[in-house]
Amino acid sequence: MSRPVEGFLSAVGGDGPIIILPHDNPDPDAIASAAGLDFLCRERLGKEAVICLGGIVARAENRAMLTYLDISLSPVADVDFSPPAKVVLVDTQPGRRNNSLPPGIVPTAVIDHHPAYEDLGGVPFVDLRDYGATASMVAEYLFDAGLEPDARVATALFYGIAAETQDLGREAKVVDVLVSQRLYPYTNKKRLAKIENARVPADYFRVFRDAIEHAEVVGKVVFCDLGEISYPDQAAEVADFLLRLDQVQWSAVAGYHEGRIYVSLRTTDRDANAGEVLRKVVGSNSAGGHGMI
After folding, report:
1. Report field, pTM of the whole predicted structure over 0.85
2. 259-282: average pLDDT
């Protein structure tokens, strides 16, 4: 086994339950990474982890992922994070407002493909890499541990990488391509197709209709205020959709959900860093994502 996976297993082994906490309102990369780590813990430590859910899973593809790949999430309110529990933050980090890590709890491990947001010196195991997706890191853990992922986990990891990198077209590194190629033979192609083409309600299309009617173009930027949205990911979905407008290079979409404002910024400009722009506007603890977020 390579050093990262050895270090992870050493950190989370021993007494106490293993709690895996992805960021709130988890996306496919976070869900897949959590499922992969749970598989690793079961196969190599004989311990089944608890995958926690902060926020909601509302996007149709994400719900389909949970359903077709039999991934169970436990609400954070139902989980005891106190020691000797081993808490693993995945696709997020301490100090970020996008996770439900209880105050005063120091995670045992942090695994993320984003840069460090604060000093992680007190965390026993930290693995931060410049990868296109956290799921690529977790897949490497499995392969380095001598494991072949089952169809359920392989499909989750493959889809997590594809969704995070927009089919390897957004900030994907060579390693993301190689890991995807290695995972593909293990995937369940029928279930993968059901996830990618998940059924959506009529309201889904009404949101896009309203976005088209209310969007404004200023220079190379298209703006849209969606008002009240059904779930946080709707802002990102609409931002992706509006970015396809041929005369723009940026899309900025805002929506309101349960008293919070969600802003999604997208760009096709490879020399710009949308994630950094958002961090400067709303603060480093509130924003995250990609250069082409």
Report:
1. yes
2. 79
Q: How many CB atoms lie within 10 A of CB 289?
A: 19
**Rounded Cα gap, residues 283 and 33, in angstroms:** 26
Cα 281 to chain centroid, rounded: 22
Lowest mean pLDDT among 65-69, 173-177, 222-226, 266-270: 266-270
| Cα–Cα distance for residue pair 165/163, rounded to 1 Å | 6
Structure token pair of residue 51: 């995958």
Write out the two tokens for 142: 């499995």
- Return the SS3 of 292: coil
Set out the domains of the chain in order of their start, with CATH numbers. Answer: 3-196 (3.90.1640.10), 202-282 (3.10.310.30)
> Where do we find the tokens 């496919």?
28
DSSP class of residue 99?
Answer: S
Which pLDDT belongs to residue 13? 96
With a CB cutoff of 8 Å and minimum separation 6, the contacts of 153 are 35, 36, 39, 69, 142
Instruction: Centre a 10 Å sphere on the Cβ of residue 8 and count the other Cβ atoms it contains.
Output: 25
Distance CA 176, CA 181 (A): 9
